[in-house]
Amino acid sequence: MQHLKLMPLLIAAAFYVPRAHAVELIAVGSLSGLSSDLSTATAGPLENGVAGNLLGGLGSGLAYAGGNTFIATPDRGPNASVYNPLVDNTTSYINRFQTINMTLTANAGPGLAYTLTPTLTATTLLSSATPLSYGSGALGTGGGATLGSGTPALNSAGHYYFTGRSDNFDPALSSANPNNGRLDPEAVRVSRDGKSVFVSDEYGPYVYQFDRATGQRIASFALPGKLAVSHLSASGDAEIAGNTSGRIANKGMEGLAITPDGKTLVGAMQANLEQDARGTLRIVTIDIATKATHEYAYQLSTGTGVSEIVALNDHQFLVDERDGKGLGDGSKAVNKQLYMVDLAGATDVSGLAAINAGTPSLNKQLFLDLVPVLVANGYNARQIPSKIEGLAFGADIMRGGVLTHTLYVANDNDFSADSGDNKFFVFGVTDADLARIGASYTAQTLSPVPEAPGYGMLMAGVGMICLAGRRKRNEVFRQDV
User: Fold this and answer.
1) 95 and 58 Cβ atoms separated by less than 8 Å
2) Percentages of the chain per state (helix, strand, coil), in multiples of 5
3) Are 275 and 257 in contact (CB under 8 A)?
4) What is the pTM of this model?
5) pLDDT tens-digit profile of 51-87?
6) Which residues form the signal peptide (predicted)?
């Protein structure tokens, strides 16, 4: 009977013909979203009754930090439980990034070439040193629940936390206001010196830089004004109806890349702006030193939006274009594809108020079609995560004497048990694979950052009480070792 069960998989593998080329799946790892993260200070129930430190989905963004270390970002928190539609059921979930150790080990037995063991090692809360705007609760009662203040209880002087609640904004200013307390993180990258992370978001859209050791914001990058909306609302539908230009609600800067030299950020909008034609997106480059920006047009092929972008080198990038079908949607996954785009010689469209299918756009080539590769490796199309979002290149490995780049692909389960565990798919990519589409790979230059000292070291010597208090305020929670 066991042989009979294997027959469909063997037949599928025998007749599988890749639509791009043979990049190989070499490992899969998972973390349950039903467990808690390490932020015990946020463990209390949110407005919808869900624990504030539910691990949930953490693959909205994924970044390599050197060695076996990766940084992952959950989005704005659990909002699948209906409690108050006036704020789209969003809660005062404090935004954070998770630090994960990914141990990749050669597998001598049957199955994939490697085993992947992800371990959560730290949870870092995101804050501002200056006050932020929060909802007062004045929207009132909706769905049987009355709103309270949106100000986080953990706030203290010099530590004002970002949260996912949609009414945390100043209605007198545009969505570009960096003092808004609402944040919906969607992508993350590590700085060249390893001491900070860059996070892009959907509410603004924003691109912020946070200190990696404390989680405090240290810089904000002003994006082109045409990306922002003027009339803000706690309801996404109302915000869409109330604006004719700017990002569409819940479709902001979904992807973020950093060039290997650490000098340029490249942000990808998930969908068209209100004033742009459907299917025509903007990709924005940001010079980290000068903060100068440039814009490029990207045309969707088969997906309904872009979820991530990752650098191959200083001008070529992989773009994650997908639909919303698969596990979590109750349907079969169809389009989860990675395209290579090249910014070298591309037309800057910064001066265009609106763009469409006729606008000079980035050339793109299909590099990896994820669904058929996963199906060939035994996955049912209904079990492939609907939201494939995080992309990061990890450490290179040698396979059969061939240098192989490891490409990590993560999903966002939206804090929903229906969407399954957090999955991390690892693909082996060779220089020959890239050469077939005229691309090459340069690893990001990263400086090693020593782990923060433990409590014992922090509390030793003079100033013990002061240092202990400072660590508590920083809200960096680590796994005991």
Assistant:
1) no
2) 15, 35, 50
3) no
4) 0.91
5) 999 999 999 999 999 999 999 999 999 988 889 999 9
6) 1-22
